[in-house]
Amino acid sequence: MIWFGGKRPTAAAINASGTASMPGFVGIEFVDAGDDWFSMRMPVDRRTRQPQGRLHGGASVVLAETIGSIAANCCIDPSRWLAVGMEINANHIRPAYDGWVTATARPEALGRTSHVWSIRIEDEAGKLVCISRFTVAVIPVERK
């Protein structure tokens, strides 16, 4: 298990942490976590669509960076360390028009000073909408 203290993240703690920031604004919600994966979802609605009605690519990146950041922070001692975004890329594969998209993050590397996460975003039919790679820096809390 990759989670700090051997405890899987819970919905109550994760959802409460984002209500007054970007995740709350676009409706991102915790779904589940396993031994080495983390899942969140986001609605495809007026907040996350481009004017032409498709899921905005930037909204997919917001979902990817949100899940990657939260997952990385759940792997480290929060009294000593903070994981912050360093680099993200995203390949937009197919459009989504409504419903929900679900992101699943898995670590590629969990180092002492950096992590690399792969994030798959799928529509409700399980079709790949976006694939992203996210790198975080693990810094001392006093640097935040």
Order of strands across the widest beta sheet?
1-2-4-5-6-3
State the helical fraction. 10-25%
Percent strand equals 35-45%
Largest sheet: 6 strands, antiparallel
Average residue pLDDT: 94
Question: Could you name the CATH topology?
Answer: Thiol Ester Dehydrase, Chain A
CATH architectural label? Roll
Secondary-structure element string: HHEEHEEEE
Characterise this structure.
- It contains three helices and six strands, in the order ααββαββββ.
- It has 144 residues and is an alpha+beta fold.
- The chain has a single domain (4-143), classed as Hotdog Thioesterase (Thiol Ester Dehydrase, Chain A).
- It has a six-stranded antiparallel β-sheet with strand order 1-2-4-5-6-3.
- It is globular and about 45 Å long.
Describe the structure concisely for a colleague:
The protein has 144 residues and is of the alpha+beta class. The protein has one domain (4-143): Hotdog Thioesterase (Thiol Ester Dehydrase, Chain A, Roll), CATH 3.10.129.10. The chain has three helices and six strands.
Which secondary structure elements does this structure contain, and how are they paired or packed?
Layout: H1 11-17, H2 22-26, E1 29-33, E2 38-43, H3 57-73, E3 81-92, E4 100-110, E5 114-122, E6 128-140
Antiparallel strand pairs: 1-2, 2-4, 3-6, 4-5, 5-6
Main attributes of the structure:
single chain, 144 residues, alpha+beta, Thiol Ester Dehydrase, Chain A, 6-stranded antiparallel β-sheet
